[in-house]
Amino acid sequence: MKTVEMGDKIQISCEGKLQDGQVFLKNEENKHISLTVGENALFPALEKELIGMKVGESKNIILEPQDSFGNPDPGLIMETSKDNLNPDISIEIGCRIGIDLPTGKKLYGLITEMTEDKVTVDFNHPLAGKTVIFTVTLIAIEDPLKSVN
Length: 149
Known about the structure:
The protein is mostly beta strands. The protein is built from two helices and nine strands. It is elongated, with a radius of gyration of 20 Å.
């Protein structure tokens, strides 16, 4: 039976959880994730663990922060004046806010502290610093000869 190799196009079912069991990712039933192993559509450490799997096989893959969402970066925690924020948005601790970047993209952060005139916003990924557990089931390995047509 064929096993996953680097460069294979595959379909997987995937669930991501924190160590306390909280689910943060789960693909819908019958809506599998398609990827080419080695193109780093997912975390490289996770894709590496897919190599050698057989169709129908499931595997729990534990990723430390440095192999997934990274460790928190103190440089991504910023303080700004409340005057710099959109007056139409709710400003309170625990709220997520977005800022427009010059590139046209948006950066989201979490308000972590407030004073009368300043706000501290943490722009780290919400899962930065967390160990995550992925349960992956290999659904299919695409036949490269069928994809040529």
